[in-house]
Write a structure and sequence with these properties.
By secondary structure, this protein is α+β, with helices and mostly antiparallel strands. Helices cover 35% and strands 24% of the residues. A four-stranded mixed beta sheet has the order 1-2-4-3, sandwiched between helices.
Length: 130
């Protein structure tokens, strides 16, 4: 999706969006600067993947859920990758609000995941990734 740039350059784009209805922050990070990203999400492990979801941290005084995409690796970030992380993030949000999966009535889950995907897409456009 993204145009590959020099591998030795560090890239860091971050946007936090208030989560409608469910409260909290949805943090979107596009970066290959793992140290900077780990500070935002309070993560102390290795970030070797090209896509990751984080939860159980605070951002700007609110509970937060974050997705990280590294468009500057050999592994491509595809639409499937984005959907995969949106699914994790949406599931973490619903679980943190004690909303159990209901496969006969999954509208609330579908709306929140669609909203997350649209926020990611908007930010990708703002950053010139698509």
């Amino acid at each position: 999706m993204a145009t590959k740039k020099k591998k030795n350059e560090l890239y860091f784009f971050k946007k936090a969006v208030n989560i409608p209805i469910y409260y909290g922050n949805f943090v979107i990070i596009f970066s290959n600067d793992s140290e900077k990203a780990k500070k935002i999400v309070n993560y102390h492990g290795d970030l070797c993947d090209f896509a990751f979801t984080f939860h159980n941290f605070s951002y700007n005084g609110k509970e937060a859920i974050a997705v990280l995409f590294n468009f500057w690796t050999e592994q491509p970030v595809t639409m499937g990758t984005i959907i995969h992380e949106v699914n994790h993030a949406g599931n973490r949000l619903m679980a943190s609000r004690n909303i159990m999966p209901d496969y006969d009535n999954d509208e609330s889950e579908s709306y929140v995941k669609a909203w997350m995907a649209e926020e990611i897409e908007k930010f990708m456009k703002q950053c010139g990734i698509i």
